[in-house]
Amino acid sequence: MTLVSNKNFLSAGAEFDKPKFLVLAGDITESADSNGCDEWSQFEYHFPAGGIPGYLDRLSYPTTETTGNHDFPFMPTLKQARDIKERKKISTRIQLRHRDRELGLDNAHGNRVNLIAQTSDRGAYTWEFQGIHFFNLNTKPSGGGHDVNGQDLTCGKRTNKAHITSDGSAPSPSNLIRDDDCWEYVIRKKKYRVVDPQKALTFLENKGIENSQIVVTTHYGPMSQSRIANDELRNFCTILKKKRIRVIAWLVGHTHRSDYYEWQCGGYNVPVFNVGSGFQLATNKDQIHFSTFRVTDNWLEALDISFDPTSNVFHVPGVQANNAINCTNAKGNLRYPNKRNIAVPYNIIKNGIYDSFDHAGNPGVAQWCNPDGKWGGWQVRVPICPPGISPYLGASGLNINPACL
Length: 405
Known about the structure:
Layout: E1 22-24, H1 34-46, E2 63-65, H2 78-82, H3 84-87, H4 89-103, E3 115-118, E4 125-129, E5 132-136, E6 164-166, E7 184-188, E8 191-195, H5 200-205, E9 212-217, H6 230-242, E10 245-252, E11 259-265, E12 268-274, E13 288-295, E14 299-308, E15 313-315, E16 341-344, E17 348-351, E18 364-369, E19 375-383
Parallel strand pairs: 1-2, 5-9, 6-7, 9-10, 10-12
Antiparallel strand pairs: 3-4, 4-5, 7-8, 11-12, 11-17, 13-14, 14-15, 14-19, 16-17, 18-19
């Protein structure tokens, strides 16, 4: 994620300012085992916490990151997978990077992401930029939390697919941990992985942020139904409504696809951005996608941009002449037909093209495909609350402030 200022990057020929910072939505390593340690070392070199100018192979501006499911190791036994040192191996390293930021050790070149709060060796943290709070909430916004009556929020039945994923190579865990921990068990080739959100929801609940707008980053998004249960989504929404928090952007990873959809909570449609990565599918394996964001006083603007390393060309959706509004997949079906809405569990809406979008400033969404069948990406402009304006009116309740629409 990058933020730029004073440029209209929704038009052809626009220039970009230097990004303010980068957000990585998890899977820093392939697996947090011994090889993962080597991968982490490479990550720290290429993406130093505060950025180091002057190198071709090192980022020159700050990087913030969160844990993904691959940042938890596969272990020979369930006991080892549950071990707290194994579960916290990568999140502890993330925490050390934040300690360096707090001490100013990454600030020799004038770059800094000023942390407001962080968990104790559990990976979740928050910072403020241009009056907006950013929360990195680990693999998913789950674990802990209380409803409006003070009752513990739990993650539902352990038979939910989001809690146990197995290839049948070993027995599923029978002695499961407390329901409010929301661990995910993965069993593969007789090895066990425990993916732990590490009380990220408790962290969000306890930070004292109320009647405010925030940006959230997690690894799983609400469309990852095999990884995050409907109960967990309801719990997240419960905390957002309880604290009167409006999420103006939810950044997610995991799928190696670039996508945009919306999730309803608290009277708002929460924009969910499945940010780009190196793609793996046969139809897009030569493309790399990244998502660029800009925050102004009234808008959060976003572009999904693809890069073709074979031709060294960047493709900006809706700007290049070769972007088509509708294109087909390998079966000849339209990939994103006009105004298609798909109903999926728990009030998630996946949006197709919206005719209301234009370059004059109207809110909306547009998605494009390239004629060769490779999805070209999306442009999104989200109205946000101006500085000093709260998303909800009054001292209580969920009466939406029209100034934020």
